[in-house]
Amino acid sequence: MLVFIIRRLMQSALVLFAVSVVVFVGIYAIGNPADILLPDDATEQERDHAIANLGLDKPLPVQYGIFLGNAVQGDLGSSFVFNIPSIDLILSRMPATLELAFCALVVALVLGIPLGLLAGLRPGSLLDRTIVTGSILGFSLPNFWQGLMLIMIFSVTLGWVPSSGRGETGSIFGLETSLATWDGIHHLLLPAINLSLFKLSLLIRLTRAGVRETMPLDFITFARAKGLSETRIVGVHVLKTILVPIITVLGMELGSVIAFATVTETIFAWPGMGKLIIDSINHLDRPVVVAYLMVVTLMFILINLVVDVLYSILDPRVRLQGIA
Amino acid sequence: MFSRHRVRPLALAAGFGVLVSVVTPALAADLTMGFSSEQQSIDPLFSRTGPNQTAAAHIFDRLMERDEKGIFQPSLAESWKNVDPTTWEVKLRQNVKFHDGSPFTAEDVVFSIERAPKVPNSPASFESYVRSIKAMQVVDPYTLRFTSTTPDPTFMQNVGGVFIISKKVAENATSADFNSGKVAIGTGPYKFVSWTPGDRMQLLRNDAYWGPKPEWEKVTIRYISNDPARVAALLSGAVDVINEVPPTDIPTLKKDKRVNVINAASIRLIYIVLNQRDDAPGIAGLDGKPLPKNPYQDARVRQAISLMIDRAGIVDKVLFGQGVPTNNQVPEGILGYNPDLKPKYDVAAAKKLLADAGYPKGFSMTISGSNDRFLLDGDLVQGIGQLLARGGLKVAKVEALPYSVFSKAAGENGYGAWIFSNGNSAGEAGRGLESMLHTYDKDRKLGSLNRHSYSNQVFDKAIDAALDEFDDAKRWKLQADAAAIAINDGGMIPLYHQAVTWATRKGFSYAGRRDEATLAMSTKTAK
Questions:
Q1: Is A84 within 8 Å of chain B by CB?
Q2: ipTM
Q3: Alpha helices (H) along chain A
Q4: For B169-183, what is the mean pLDDT?
Q5: What number does CATH give the domain A86-208+251-323?
Q6: CA distance to partner chain A, nearest, from residue B153 (Å)
Q7: Is the Cβ pair A40, B127 closer than 8 Å?
């Protein structure tokens, strides 16, 4: 297993390098950040000044070389827009996003798996049809529209929860989080639900399909013959079998929820990384975009690694050497 | 039994009463605002773009301050006189204190002005504001003597725009020290409390402020860039004031009893320019073949295009009324405004001019613009495209691009005809006219925004003279005349001055500002 993990990490260095090149060239091709950072009435002299200040007057390969040299020493450059190290900027936004992503995931798990089990155990029943139809809505209605509707209903009309922003934060075990204060939880509710709806639907469908596939299998029949209770059959044997695909999808989804909660964060003005990346792209803030995508790539690599390790724990047939 | 039943609701009501009475005074003294865009730094000299100046204006003062109409008024500078064309003597306001209690003196002004062009990594420094200063001399703690490199009638407006920071605390400070609040110490109406990027900034009233005391004790500025979310925040009562109300929501909000909508015509000009280069792209004959000569070089073609544009229609239909049609560089009331330049819409006259110029059936052209820079710019390009087609041109392509892509190509001969916006920060028409329309001259730093290579010797002479005149009335006349020369020649085609819109909850009022700034100081309890 150790060899597997080391090999995986070495591959990731290559991926990171490729990502940085693509982003660098891509943003260079789009335009010049100086044009966006300058006011409309900036003079040519000011423009030249800004370009030189940002180090954009050098040819692209030289700029990339400088970036690479610094990156190897752990310096990914400072944001053009905010003039603070891009990694600091990303890390400062990370707690907000992580708490949002985990809350969304918890909501999805706590509701999704039981609902999927219920539906899968009674296929064709009214309950099953209701749950499946509900999940279709969760799937197919665009995320931003769901968000706006949540705001319209629960903030504007009913006035139950705030429409946007992050509330007061407190600290739990030294972590700065909204979950520590009532105000924070209040603010977190809508965005977390908005972000969870898609995963929730996905989980319902995955669980339901898994249950329907597993129930007719021989080992369930044997378990029944052996006299195991239905609760134990479903709760232990079925659940363990269907968990492998769920964990795969969940791993990927967790990554994308953390990295690209852009829509939800924008609509709810949530000061997280998703909002940062979209703002940075609009400002052509290259150091932040590059650093961000590198962090995200690293995160995906790590999540996949964890998922692979989890497989081997859940399913004794899986050997890690085989996957690599 | 009976009494217990009656007591409960009463107790509840009393409880609510206490709650309300506790909450209401706090609400009355506090203000929460929802902004569409955020500053890049608390360092007031880091960048001179709109959102940065708006944030800084709460905490810091300048020598001169723009009023709501966009006219410069004395602020930390109490008075000044022009000793000779290149010498200015400025008297500073006395008994002004920084937030840390230290007194404001001429040394702070000198320090701030010296720091202005030197802020590290600044993408848009205040260098252009202080460029014409040759020397500064502290006569006494409240008197300063400036020498300018050339005679410059607008010297005070420029230098007056620099935010004044404290020499005592900010010497050797970095922008990061401002962000953390360590040196974010000004003389302004509000003290800096905290800034959480992407989320909010908190301010506290400066009770020792020398000027009119703002109404709100605590101010929270929240950054909600998404349009519907900003409106929802207002409707749900999470914020009291928002800026940049999405135009599509204005008609509904105006009918809503819970909110007030405030409108002001800004100084921001939206205009069309026509590329004068011989190799201007995006132009062809009706058969698609290149034309022997760039038609935009013919003044009649330019005038015809100006006549094709139904400015009132555009403002009404495309912008939901959010603009003031114009044929000037600045709106009425600003120095250099020419009342004789009125928008004209006459398709028949346009067709005749085109025919006179040798294009009776028009020619094929492309119109380009941005789609994320100013209010409804993407829709505007399409509307203009339709008007040009109706006016007798063959509009081959209408392109609306993200500003990051568009601005680069616009500066590199990428388009034939395009739409741009210009927010005038000088307080008069002259400097804007010069940078947009003067023949490009790199050495003399003239025509720096003249991306379409317009050149007219008569106009150049007129604007040069207008910029050097010290007498305000005469300068107004000269600038208005210069504007007429260039605009009647089609050097640029002004479309409209964009309206700026704010919305407040009932019970609040906002004094709309021409400079587009959203300030806690301009927000009051509605009477």
A1: yes
A2: 0.79
A3: 2-30, 33-37, 44-53, 60-72, 86-121, 126-140, 143-150, 182-214, 218-226, 230-232, 239-259, 262-267, 273-282, 286-314, 320-323
A4: 92
A5: 1.10.3720.10
A6: 19
A7: no
